[in-house]
Design a protein that fits this description.
- It is built from ten helices and no strands.
- With 193 residues, it is mostly helical.
- Helix 2 crosses helix 4 and helix 9 packs across helix 10.
- The longest helix has 27 residues.
- It is globular and about 60 Å long.
- The protein starts with a helix and ends with a helix.
């Protein structure tokens, strides 16, 4: 059963079929939102919110694009809205993670138990440094780079999600990479001093 058939069944009253869409797209949505919020708990909550919003908006899905493209748009918009509404909260969480007042299960789970604690700390700092640099990009550049690097989407797919051209996506990705390189190299120079 393809997505359009599942959606048709849901709209005809078989609400349990929505579970099938969740199971199929949950990891995709999670990868997208974590690229924006960088925190597993926030990403879990936001993933759930995206599916609630998708369910409520399903009658408005026209099928002009793939369901996954439509769902990506919802996930990106929800992520950007979350960042706009609570930048102070996200900054406080990041500070807590860096200062050690609150452990970040996401980052710690990336490392094996036998790793040297110093190496773990260095990698964690590097990840947080890259995340902070990513957060400073303009929204359209951040969206393009998250969809490209976190979700491994093609420029064509990103263009459909962002409702723009492939050429515009390519330009956004180039500017985003250039901006990230500048920010990361400036941060490294700052850390050496």
């Amino acid at each position: 059963m393809n997505d359009n058939e599942v959606i048709k069944n849901i709209l005809q009253g078989d609400k349990d079929k929505f579970r099938q869409l969740i199971e199929q797209y949950e990891q995709m949505v999670f990868r997208t939102v974590i690229g924006f919020v960088h925190n597993k708990d926030d990403a879990d909550d936001l993933t759930q919110d995206v599916f609630i919003q998708a369910y409520q908006s399903l009658p408005h899905f026209k099928g002009d694009s793939a369901f996954s493209t439509w769902l990506y748009r919802i996930a990106v918009n929800a992520s950007l809205n979350k960042i706009r509404k609570s930048p102070g909260k996200l900054l406080l969480q990041r500070f807590e993670n860096i200062s050690g007042n609150k452990s970040d299960k996401d980052v710690n789970s990336l490392f094996r138990d036998e790793d040297d604690p110093e190496n773990i700390l260095i990698r964690q700092e590097h990840i947080e440094f890259v995340q902070r640099a990513l957060d400073t990009l303009p929204e359209n550049q951040r969206t393009a780079i998250v969809l490209s690097k976190y979700d491994d989407l093609s420029q064509k797919e990103i263009a459909q999600i962002m409702n723009t051209t492939e050429g515009a996506v390519e330009a956004l990705l180039q500017r985003a990479k250039k901006n990230l390189r500048k920010k990361l190299s400036a941060g490294r120079k700052k850390n050496k001093n």
